[in-house]
Amino acid sequence: KAGVTQTPRYLIKTRGQQVTLSCSPISGHRSVSWYQQTPGQGLQFLFEYFSETQRNKGNFPGRFSGRQFSNSRSEMNVSTLELGDSALYLCASSLGLSSGPSRYEQYFGPGTRLTVT
Amino acid sequence: AQSVTQLGSHVSVSEGALVLLRCNYSSSVPPYLFWYVQYPNQGLQLLLKYTTGATLVKGINGFEAEFKKSETSFHLTKPSAHMSDAAEYFCAVMRAGGGNKLTFGTGTQLKVEL
């Protein structure tokens, strides 16, 4: 079974621009979560989508947004990029079920490394 | 609010020695607990998890962890370190009924020396 894929793997943008990152979950997984990883702040939860609806949201400004499509693929968008947005953005997929032993297991993609100059 | 504390940002062990990575959590209700490993330029890989049941949890690559409610701890151990274990390890908590939001510790970089 193919794992979580994220595109692109590397991205360089300029301050003020916007960026869209893509995540394709494991087949059959309906929940997609996004995390930001930086040396200073560590791993921080951005948001979670399940069945095209945002189910959870972290403490990030409104410049960070996301969406999920009917095939469970997800995108996140960052508008008006700032230098501090430079980070590794990780996507994680899970079954998203409310029961079953695997319902809490999240599988991470390799991440998108975003550099803002 | 939940939080996770990982004692020791860097741990160094000799190959064949015991690996012990410490994790303490703070939560108003018993959370679900996880350990993830991250190799350079890769995403996170789930090592093991505790949700309910047996408090000693066995994971992949010979790792195990014990949930101790009285000590609010979930330390990760491996009896004998291998060079391939060198990586960064993250402890994480998830609030029961709180969706799939993971709160991570700051990570412990494990170095394995010959």
Outline the structure in words.
The complex is a heterodimer of chains A (117) and B (114). Chain A is mostly beta strands. Chain A has no helices and eleven strands. Chain A has strands spanning 5-7, 10-13, 19-24, 31-38, 42-50, 53-57, 64-68, 74-78, 87-94, 107-108, 112-116. In chain A, the strands form two sheets. In chain A, strands 2, 4, 5, 6, 9, 10 and 11 form a seven-stranded mixed beta sheet that branches. A four-stranded antiparallel beta sheet of chain A has the order 1-3-8-7, with no helix packed on it. Chain A is globular. The relative contact order of chain A is 0.32. The model of chain A has no long low-confidence stretch (mean pLDDT 93). Chain B is an all-beta fold. In chain B, strands 2, 5, 6, 10, 11 and 12 form a six-stranded mixed beta sheet that branches. In chain B, strands 3-9-8-7 form a four-stranded antiparallel beta sheet, with no helix packed on it. Chain B has a two-stranded antiparallel ribbon with strand order 1-4. The model of chain B has no long low-confidence stretch (mean pLDDT 92). Classes of the chains: A mainly beta (117), B mainly beta (114). Chains A and B meet through β4, β5, β9 and β10 of A and β5, β6, β10 and β11 of B.
